[in-house]
Amino acid sequence: MTAKIISGREVAEHILEKELSVKVKELKEKNIVPNLVVILVGEMKASASYVAQKEKFAAKAGIKSEVRRFTAEISEEEILSEIDKINNDSLIHGVIVQLPLPDHISVAKVLNRIHPSKDVDGFTPNNVGKLFLGEDTLVSCTPKGIMQMLRISGTDLSGKNVTVIGRSNIVGKPVSILCQSQNATVTMCHSRTKDLNHKLSDADVIIVAVGVPKFISGDQIPEGAVVIDVGIHRVKSNKTKSGYKLVGDVNFDDVESKVSYITPVPGGVGPMTIASLLRNTLFSAKKIIYSHT
Ligand code: NAP
């Protein structure tokens, strides 16, 4: 079997060029500029690189983005008051806090402070609760991007078996809920799961968000499954100039011949996460605008 690659990069480009930039232009004609603020704390290289990508994508879509940088020594109170300022600024439609934060700052407290209408990462309890209840809301970006890629592959989830490996609040849990809402039967696995291979054996769709490079290999995957690889890791390689390459949680080369569809790393879930963030920003801008008219 030759797997079809679901290129998140191509889909994201399409969303930026054909959907978002058109809608942003319409808003700008009404003198409304969708505006996203990113809070970046500390000097982590990976965080800085994710934020730079978000800025680049936003610029392509015509969405204004501003990065507010703070040193790792900033206090929790200062971050909270920055969020209050943003919540009260009617010209800002979305805010995200790039994670992780330094240990002395409570992630839960910071995320809870964001007004739900500007929570374009979909991490606040209000938005997570609405997702759980099946209400229209700002859905967290990686799961939202994954659902879009499944749609593009033509995968109808109704009645299908979906195995999700990883139960994080930002990927595993929300994507499980979204799959269930489309009538899939979802099995959630984590580090205490016994006999993971058995849980994978009758899966039609496998979503891997574990955070371990090449965690899943070909012999664990049933023939013809659809595989979504969320993981992203920089590992040493003697085949590249830089001496490094990016790999996912799935051993792509080993798995590719068995699956019907697979997302690559890089160029899979990553770009779709950012496209979803920008979609959420637009959604939020429109909602705020219409609530004032
Ligand atoms: P996380 O918060 O670290 O959660 C990892 C999950 O994997 C946990 O639920 C953990 O189980 C489970 N796990 C760990 N070892 C396991 C094992 N041996 N067997 C089964 N389950 C195991 O990770 P995350 O934030 O969801 O991220 C996962 C990966 O996706 C990372 O590589 C991250 O960088 C990447 N990611 C990429 C994007 C993107 O846009 N491309 C976005 C988000 C995340 P327990 O709960 O029992 O500990």
What does this protein structure show overall?
The model has no long low-confidence stretch (mean pLDDT 96). The longest helix has 23 residues, at 269-291. The strands form 3 sheets. This protein has a 6-stranded parallel sheet. A 3-stranded parallel sheet has the order 3-2-4. Strands 9-10 form a two-stranded antiparallel sheet. Helix 1 (8-29) crosses helix 2 (45-61) and helix 6 packs across helix 10 (269-291). It has 2 domains: 32-115, Rossmann fold; 141-270, Rossmann fold (3-Layer(aba) Sandwich). It has 10 helices and 11 strands. The chain is α/β, with parallel strands linked by helices. It binds NADP nicotinamide-adenine-dinucleotide phosphate. Residues 142, 165-168, 170-172, 189-193, 209-212, 230-232, 269-270, 273 line the site of NADP nicotinamide-adenine-dinucleotide phosphate.
* Total count of strands: 11
**Oligomeric status:** single chain
Overall, the morphology is globular
Low-confidence stretches: none
The chain-level mean pLDDT equals 96
Strand content: 15-25%
CATH architecture of the largest domain: 3-Layer(aba) Sandwich
Named once each, the bound ligands are: NADP nicotinamide-adenine-dinucleotide phosphate
Looking at CATH, the homologous superfamily of the largest domain is NAD(P)-binding Rossmann-like Domain
Radius of gyration: 19 Å
Q: What summary fits the major beta sheet?
A: 6 strands, parallel
Q: Could you give the order of strands across the largest sheet?
A: 1-11-8-7-5-6
CATH topology of the largest domain: Rossmann fold
Order of helices and strands: EHEHEHEHHHEHEHEEEEHEH
How far apart the termini lie comes to 54 Å
Briefly note the structural class of the backbone.
alpha/beta
Tally of DSSP helical segments: 10
Share of residues in helices: 40-55%
How many domains?
2
CATH class of the largest domain, please?
Alpha Beta
